[in-house]
Design a protein that fits this description.
Blueprint lengths: L1 E4 L11 H11 L5 E4 H9 L2 H12 L8 H8 L1 H15 L7 H5 L26 H4 L4 H24 L20 H8 L4 H17 L3 E5 L6 H14 L4 E5 L1 H6 L14 E3 L4 H11 L11 E6 L2 H4 L7 E6 L44 E3 L2 E2 L14 H4 L2 E2 L2 H15 L3 E4 L6 H14 L4 E6 L7 H9 L2 E9 L3 H6 L6 H13 L3 E8 L6 H16 L5 E6 L7 H4 L7 E2 L14 E2 L6 H16 L8 H8 L14 H7 L4
Parallel strand pairs: 1-2, 1-3, 3-4, 4-5, 8-11, 11-12, 12-13, 13-14, 14-15
Antiparallel strand pairs: 5-6, 6-7, 9-10, 16-17
Helix pairs in contact: 2-10, 3-5, 10-11, 16-17, 17-18, 18-20, 20-25, 21-23, 23-24
Length: about 650
């Protein structure tokens, strides 16, 4: 069995799904291997020869159609060709001394992406990055400059080779909540781009290395779907005897109502939810030990009798979900993830954001692990609480978790862990910390939590002692009315105290923020930003990100819209993906416009800038002349919450 990570997911560390599946299959005696074609694609293109190929395509573009990024690339091509391989090696941690030349600003060609540095221009020192890196932060300074350099090249790939290309959202619009399969089918029928040609070569090489009888395509996001289908297309064309199964987060959320038979021109099986039990059933089926009627949570294509159905030949095939009732593999028995076979030394540590917390998502190679399956809270009205990845909550003992941690450290030589739970349970984290301390197991870890009052100052100190360096959690809309409506189970004052307890323990805090929730008003949006401003000013949080609320068909809002004061907009009919769903909010607020103000303000707050600016001014910037309400939040609200004056 060959498990594949398709482009694009992450470049700094492997997406963990194949590691989980490979470890589980090996624990059951299955010969299983894995490949990260996302990383391989970037490493193949970002070489001197790869850039030569990009240049040849770019020169075929009419001059009038060349973007500023493409023109700069062509003008400075020799410098790009000379610097690309040393820079990649530096980002892989293989040539640290190159940081001197990169940080000196004379080595890399500086294209349009470097204009962002002008925002930090310091007329006194002449060094726009001195505030972030000082005199001695040379490695990080160089990594940030090298990341801007790669982003320039990504822009060239998008503008000259494939207009769908992004590092983490490759062809996303072809799949995300796309009711019809037609756009994806047309893209797959189109002539190959350089990206497609490269991906095909990498796919065939992987097949030649491993000779699999079953290939698993793990697709976590819409931005990995197009490349996954290109991989499947290549395998079907050159090795039609190989079976292909599609699964992962995208499938689990968006393809639950799949009826599009053309999907099975590319793959043979589509499995839902936790992959262990469906895989065991599928393997028995392929070995002739189980009939197709006893597959578990698996879509297949079946032929129907045209003469009886009266259907034309093109419609003579039907998609069927087979779901033989069989208990799932318990979380404690899924085995230990393995990264064996993945080139851990080749991942790229990037530094997109200068914020110390925000950088964790792209900088460093983290062993990704879950401490529990599902969510112990599973009440939030915006979340897919009806689906397995949220609803099916299971835990493992601290001893089992630390056994897994120690096995992974022994295999990878890396002691950094990112716990990728929906929300890690406080009780489990407390037991885990105690077990790590008891065994004197030294790791650094971070993960996602709920900002609940169980995280006392004493518990935060214990977590820090066990190696916790950062946490992320959902504050969502910083409004007590809306927090109650969305059933978060927290208040703004409570979040302030919990986040401050973490920061006082030396743990960085990232807040997931939301706007555009049903019935949210302009006044509540402005008030929400004021709460956020005060949380930054009081040192409660160090990083954040504003997400636009999206209604999904599996969430309480999507299932019971009347409870939230909205009506759903009928989605287009289709046979492929279904997840996001539009709705009519009677408030009529232009949340897209407000979102620009929120994002700009937050970007400044994360860099310690403009924390004393009235929050209404951010909205006035994007809505000149609009009558905007003043914030109703007292200027000392968070300070009073921290003192206990506000419950």
């Amino acid at each position: 069995v060959l498990s594949v990570i398709p482009p694009m997911t992450q470049l700094n560390t492997p997406y963990p799904s194949t590691a989980y599946l490979t470890g589980f299959l090996r624990s059951r005696g299955v010969f299983a291997v894995q490949e990260d074609l996302a990383l391989q694609l970037v490493l193949r293109l970002f070489t001197a020869q790869g850039l030569e190929d990009v240049k040849a395509r770019a020169l075929k573009l009419p001059e009038a159609e060349r973007s500023a990024s493409v023109n700069f690339f062509l003008d400075f091509f020799q410098r790009y060709a000379h610097t690309i391989e040393p820079t990649i090696a530096f980002l892989q941690g293989k040539d640290s001394t190159l940081s001197h030349r990169i940080a000196g600003r004379g080595f890399l060609p500086e294209g349009p992406r470097f204009a962002a540095l002008d925002a930090y221009d310091d007329s006194e020192s002449g060094d726009p990055l001195s505030w972030a890196f000082g005199a001695l932060g040379q490695q990080d300074r160089a990594r940030h400059l090298a990341t801007l350099y790669l982003n320039d090249l990504a822009d060239v790939l998008r503008d000259a080779i494939d207009n769908r290309f992004e590092f983490v959202r490759y062809g996303e619009s072809l799949a995300g909540s796309q009711a019809s399969f037609e756009p994806l089918a047309q893209a797959l029928a189109a002539p190959f781009t350089l990206m497609d040609e490269t991906l095909q070569a990498l796919t065939l090489q992987a097949i030649d290395r491993h000779h699999p009888s079953l290939v698993l395509l793990s697709v976590p996001f819409p931005g990995a779907v197009y490349a996954a289908f290109r991989i499947a297309q290549c395998i079907k064309q050159h090795h039609p005897h190989i079976h292909i199964a599609l699964g992962g987060g995208f499938v689990n959320t968006e393809l639950r109502e799949l009826t599009e038979a053309r999907v099975f021109d590319y793959v043979d099986f589509v499995t839902l939810d936790s992959g262990e039990r469906p895989l065991l059933a599928l393997l028995e089926h392929l070995e002739g030990k189980r009939s197709a009627s006893r597959l578990v949570r698996t879509f297949i294509r079946k032929s129907v009798d045209d003469t009886q159905s009266g259907e034309s030949a093109v419609n003579s095939q039907r998609v069927q979900l087979i779901n033989w009732s069989e208990p799932d593999v318990p979380f404690e028995e899924v085995g230990t993830a393995t990264w064996d076979g993945l080139p851990l030394q080749d991942y790229l540590s990037l530094l997109d954001m200068l914020n110390p917390m925000h950088r964790l998502w792209s900088d460093g190679r983290w062993n990704k692990l879950t401490v529990a399956h599902g969510c112990y809270w599973k009440k939030c009205s915006f979340c897919d609480v009806s689906l397995d990845y949220i609803a099916n909550y299971q835990t493992a003992t601290a001893a089992v978790l630390v056994d897994r941690i120690e096995a992974i450290v022994a295999e990878t030589g890396e002691t950094g862990f990112h716990f990728v739970d929906e929300a890690a349970p406080p009780k489990v984290l407390k037991a885990l910390a105690a077990e790590l301390l008891r065994r004197r197991t030294t790791i650094s870890w971070w993960g996602n939590i709920r900002f609940e009052k169980t995280f006392t100052p004493a518990l935060c100190e214990e977590l820090a002692s066990s190696g916790c360096i950062a946490v992320s959690g959902g504050l969502e809309v910083a409004s007590d009315r809306l927090l109650k409506l969305m059933k978060k189970g927290v208040s703004v004052a409570q979040v302030a105290r919990v986040t401050r307890a973490f920061t006082d323990a030396g743990i960085l805090v990232h807040a997931y923020l939301m706007y555009g929730f049903p019935t949210q008003t302009v006044a509540e949006t402005i008030d929400s930003l004021e709460y956020v401003r005060q949380l930054f000013a009081e040192g409660c949080v160090q990083s954040g990100y504003f997400h636009r609320f999206t209604c999904t068909v599996h969430s309480p809002v999507g299932l019971n819209p009347a409870e939230y004061g909205v009506t759903l907009i009928a989605p287009p009919t289709g046979r492929f993906a279904r997840n996001d769903i539009g709705f009519h909010d009677p408030t009529g607020v232009d949340h897209d416009l407000l979102g620009k103000a929120l994002s700009t303000a937050l970007y400044n707050y994360m860099h310690g800038v403009a924390l004393d600016r009235p929050v209404r001014d951010w909205f006035a910037d994007v809505m000149p002349g609009a009558r905007l309400p003043r914030t109703r939040v007292p200027a000392t609200y968070i300070a009073r919450a921290l003192s206990g004056e506000i419950d």
